[in-house]
Amino acid sequence: MRFITKISLAAVMAVAALPAAAVTIDFDTGSANTLVGGFYAAQGVTFGNAQFTGNFSLAGTSGSLAIRAPGTYVFGSGNAVTGSFTALASAI
């Protein structure tokens, strides 16, 4: 019985040691002027206070969409877009 327990524990530890698959979100899968919310929950990310918007072809952008706080172009901590991640993030 101890042998089986040790094998099971070793298998669990081996799976836990595997690196997580990279997740890339480009925002182009949404629809302009709709809330982002849990749109990317399957990839492990949920956004708060965010909606899809055009990226205005600004330098450094790609695709056609970005995200912003709904209904405003006012920036600051009182109007922040938030992101909740189900796993540790190494780059955002």
Query: Could you say which overall geometry the principal axes of the C-alpha atoms support?
Result: globular
Range of helix content: 10-25%
Q: Tell me about the largest β-sheet.
A: 2 strands, antiparallel
Cα-atom radius of gyration: 19 Å
Q: Could you say which structural class the secondary elements and strand pairing correspond to?
A: alpha+beta
* Percent of sequence in beta strands: 15-25%
The low-confidence runs, each spanning 5 or more residues with pLDDT under 50, are none
**E-strand count:** 4
Strand order of the largest sheet: 1-4
Helix segment tally: 1
CA-CA gap between termini = 46 Å
Quickly count the domains: 1
In sequence order, what are the helices and strands, one letter per element? Answer: HEEEE
Q: Residue-averaged pLDDT, rounded? A: 80
Protein name: PEP-CTERM sorting domain-containing protein
Keywords: Signal
Signal peptide: 1-22
Structure description:
This protein has one domain (20-85). The chain has 1 helix and 4 strands, in the order H-E-E-E-E. It has one helix at residues 2-16, and strands at 45-48, 51-54, 65-68, 82-85. The strands form 2 sheets. It has a two-stranded antiparallel ribbon with strand order 1-4. Strands 2-3 form a two-stranded antiparallel ribbon. The chain is globular, with a radius of gyration of 19 Å. The mean pLDDT is 80.
